[in-house]
Amino acid sequence: MFEQGSDIPFGRSLPPVVERIAKQTEDNPTPICVLVVGMAGSGKTTLMSALQESTYPYEDEEEEQGEGEQEQAQEEEGGGGDKKPAAKEPSSSDPNTMPAYCINLDPATLEVPYNASIDIRDTVKYKEVMSQHKLGPNGAIMTSLNLYATKFDQVIRILENRADNHNLSKYLLVDTPGQIEAFTWSASGTILSESLASTFPTVLVFVVDTVRCASSPNTFMSNMLYACSMYYRTRLPLVICFNKTDVVSHEFCMEWMRDYEAFQEALDNARSNEGEGGGFYDSLTRSLSLVLDEFYNQFQQNACGVSAMTGDGIEEFWKVIDQAAKNDFADYIDDLRHRIEEQEAKQKAMARAGVMQFQKDTDESS
Ligand SMILES: Nc1nc2c(ncn2[C@@H]2O[C@H](COP(=O)(O)OP(=O)(O)OP(=O)(O)O)[C@@H](O)[C@H]2O)c(=O)[nH]1
Asked: Per the database record, which ranges form the AAA+ ATPase domain (predicted)?
């Protein structure tokens, strides 16, 4: 709906992202922010790494170079044959060819296997937060996020400056804490994601551990409920990314989303083979899959399978992201506009009611 250069009727209170989308051109597209969330261990960090790796412009260069030239280039880079550049910053001034710009928002992670240009750990020391405030691991993650949220306007300013100077890659990848609820159900998580979403078109990527779903339809259901609740909370375009397809294909998940009967059959099998479910739990899962029918219909085309380990499916992943950013973000802006109008109408009604009450009070007292 909002194509490049199109005329958007700006409301005064619409966020900067609307203007950014309207002003983008083919040579200078607005960066798309990809917010990676998912249950602990689903493979978020590994996926971040694979995604960034896929945006390095190496393969073509290597094909063009002769063997001798490659060796020489490796020597100049410091040898070792490591494909990743040592520099943290994007190397080119063309956003389309820059490696994805990565941000780490997980304060507790020990190692970040990708090049994080902005890292929460540079600002907030998780271990110190833990000992200073006498907190447990989850409390320390929440407090670290709270502390970081107070400074996040500075991060947004850096990103805006880079984008304005054409010095930000096409994709902005954001890794989130493994303790999903610390990010998704906290005020600071909301501040961080809303700040990004109001600055750049933002797509929420919900990473699912396909292997765990294969062994239990109830785990699949728990993941879908969580993805749905995240969509409900953020209202952002959502992509469901079934990870670890090198171990098991995600086709069965796609089928469960498409076909209610197939999921019911899987539940029956799990019950007879594994003793999973039964009683109220079983009937609840069955009716939940009916409830999620609308959600599945909407997001089937936004679901894809990848292996963060081997890189399989990453190309398709980017296509799904582009499509979600282009098509679904229009709905997001429409929804935002409605919410703003509703808010303004409510404020006007309250102001009118206040004036009427004031008149009534003065009439009564005179
Ligand atoms: N086979 C396979 N294993 C994977 C894949 N992606 C991640 N893993 C493994 O899954 C485990 C968890 O991966 P992480 O990337 O740390 O997952 P995460 O979601 O970031 O974890 P938390 O931040 O702790 O929630 C690691 O042992 C990875 O090696 C994949 O595509 N295939």
From this structure: 30-210
